[in-house]
Amino acid sequence: MFQMRYESLWNQKAGQRQDPEPGWICCLLMVLVFGAQALEDHGLDEANLIQKRYLKLVQGHVQHLIFTASLVNVQALLLLQLYEHNAGEHNAAWMLLGSASRMAVALGMHREGTGAGFDPIERNTRRIVWWTLYMFEQNSCIVLGRPSSIDHMEVDVQLPEETILDGGDHPPDYTAHALALTQIASRAKHILFNLSTMSVREADLLTTCESAKTLIKELDAWYSALPRYLRPEWQFVLARQRRAVLMMHVFYYHTKSIITRPCLLCKVNRNIDRLILDDNPPPPEITSDTYTLGQECRFAAKAAIDCLIKLSDFDLLDGVIWLDVYYVYHAVLVLCLDFLGRPQGMQESADDVAHRIAVTSILGIIQRKKLAPTYHILAQVAIQFARIVGILEEPAQMEEGRDPDNSEATIAPNQQPSVSDNNNNNITGISNVQGDGSGPGLLSDYLFQHGMNDLPWDFFNIDSSPCSDVENMSLLQLSAPYAGTFGEMYPFADA
């Protein structure tokens, strides 16, 4: 559908010319931006310039998106907020995501009855966009610790019909199981928000232990109900399907770990108190429920890292566009937490050794990945915390990382990791967008500034274009990637 709409831009006859929707143009530009990020890995020198140029155009036309409700506007806002989130502009991304969700509700995309007047393809596209928005919004609420803008009780739209989909991105029944998992995670968030993350008292935890156990049972039942072809060990034909399933399992283990994380924090706080109050009567031991749930948190984090390592083994771990490194960050912090407050010389268990290897391995992997600014910061925090607790005894441990043929980490002596020595080398893409005044950090500067007549389409000849000033550029001055010019095809463009 995207390709058909793209080709129609250049194939319209003189009597059938139509003004392209601003939302569709912004969607296309964001696709070019994300594509330029991928081109960075292939050494294309113009990749950064492409990103800055087209991102600036989208940011300058946000007013066309937020003041008119349409399906393509929702899609454009979702693409832009994803880029902003990964670039470190979390508040801007959160506001754009809220605008997209409100717009989708205004269009009735959350209600099944409102789609009766659309053809099957349009109706199914609305469902796809809605459930994608819904699951990402719920996940973002957990990541950022903020309330949802969607009232779950008002949602009754059906899932997309798989017979209409191309079937390339997800295996059968994937959306239904992913949605069920998201809904469990959403309920877990409400329990966590009622507890203090700074100082968790065991008396408070014990009042929520039963709710936590219930959610753990729901998660286990969800996992047991998965068909074989939605399990990590399934032999997938398509890489996209393998990645989708592995990421779903990462989220499953991540949800388990956030449900039980307060119990692990309670255990760690008790251990620290025991060390501080060495000359006084030691604090009482934690209850068996708190200990068991704390152990569940550790094992879930380890399982999440195992899935992330498997993603890396298939070259499917993403450090720029999606949330992979956030899950790495959280799982590493959970495993490192348990090493806080331990007496020196304490004998380590086999689980402790396995957790050390897992942390060292996954940090070695992400150190070699190109990371977006948000994930670059999270990776640094995870690495420093691993050093504080003694899992990474020397910075040299991070240089070589994990040997794919060996579950142990390979250590290179007397070398500093590039993630610490060269802070900019791992993020050559989005980080540079912010440096020249045209990046995500200045989103508000471009709101309500430009009209849709200033779109440069000379994608493959940016440096040699006689019109390098995007703000003063007219469509009539620019050559289209195909035969003819955009101005010739759309004479209204200079109006």
Descriptive overview:
- With 495 residues, this protein is an all-alpha fold.
- It has a domain at 317-325 and 347-421.
- Helices cover 56% and strands 0% of the residues.
- It has helices spanning 2-11, 22-40, 47-60, 62-66, 71-86, 90-106, 120-144, 174-193, 202-224, 239-276, 288-313, 324-337, 350-367, 373-388, 418-421, 430-435, 486-489.
- Mean pLDDT is 76; it is low at 396-495.
Q: What's this model, at a glance?
A:
The chain is mostly helical and 495 residues long. The chain is built from 17 helices and no strands. The two termini are 30 Å apart.
Largest beta-sheet details: none
> What is the overall shape?
globular
Could you tell me how far the N terminus lies from the C terminus, measured between alpha carbons in angstroms?
A: 30 Å
Look at the helices and sheets and give the structural class. mainly alpha
Strand content: under 5%
Low-confidence stretches: 396-495
Any chance you could write out the topology, listing elements then pairs?
Blueprint: H1 2-11, H2 22-40, H3 47-60, H4 62-66, H5 71-86, H6 90-106, H7 120-144, H8 174-193, H9 202-224, H10 239-276, H11 288-313, H12 324-337, H13 350-367, H14 373-388, H15 418-421, H16 430-435, H17 486-489
Helix pairs in contact: 2-3, 2-5, 5-6, 6-7, 7-8, 8-9, 8-10, 9-10, 10-11, 10-12, 11-12, 11-13, 12-13, 12-14, 13-14
